[in-house]
Amino acid sequence: MTKEDLCGIDAIAFDLDGTLVDSAPDIRQALNCALAEAGLACFELDTVRAWIGDGPDALILQALREHGLGGSEALRGRLRSAFDAATLAAPLQFGSVFEGIAELVAGLRRTLPMVVVTNKPTPLARAVLDAAGLLPAMAGVYGADTAAQRKPAPFLLHAAARQLGVEPARLLMVGDGPADLLAAQAAGCPAALVAWGYGGHAAANAAEAALAWRVSTPQQLLLTARESRAVRRDEETTRIF
Known about the structure:
CATH class of the largest domain: Alpha Beta
Strand order of the largest sheet: 5-4-1-6-7-8
Helix content: 40-55%
Oligomer: single chain
Strand content: 5-15%
Low-confidence stretches: none
Mean pLDDT: 92
Structural class: alpha/beta
CATH superfamily of the largest domain: HAD superfamily/HAD-like
CATH topology of the largest domain: Rossmann fold
């Protein structure tokens, strides 16, 4: 994707974990707090990081499977309640905003509306964004609880596009994992894969299949967006005259 391609973009949807914030340490902490309360062993950061992307219910189920447990509905419910409580108590105590993201969001805020589209439940996502200082810049937060199905289904992106009043084809999805790219493809949105996230080889393969734009740094995205807006203004001025 070039600055010419971005000329057709009217809004941007960001994934949260692994895209805007390096929240894996906090997700691990919340998961381990929940597991410890249930008398189950904890997991290392690298292990938990590889599980991030499908929301807390999938994360908890994966942890139980690693323990050789299917887990009753009651146990999963207790773990989820403990996970949510730990997250809300310390949304971003151990993690941080990725380098360059604050500048990216501040720069884009002046030119393009932004939303967050995440498989994290909305209350948890808003708490993390607030702790990161990014919440005021967002026109909306769409968590897994706001649609019939989470990413990679298209519904969260469709809801965001409706709220923003833009066509899906003019809403850029920026994320770090396969679910982000597949959701964009299903919704008819262009997509960008960030290089600094948690997606790894699976995301790279999905990016190739979805023809996603690969973004090396937040600065690259900001610069390209600024250049595209300049090109668009020039084109609009030319049409007027």
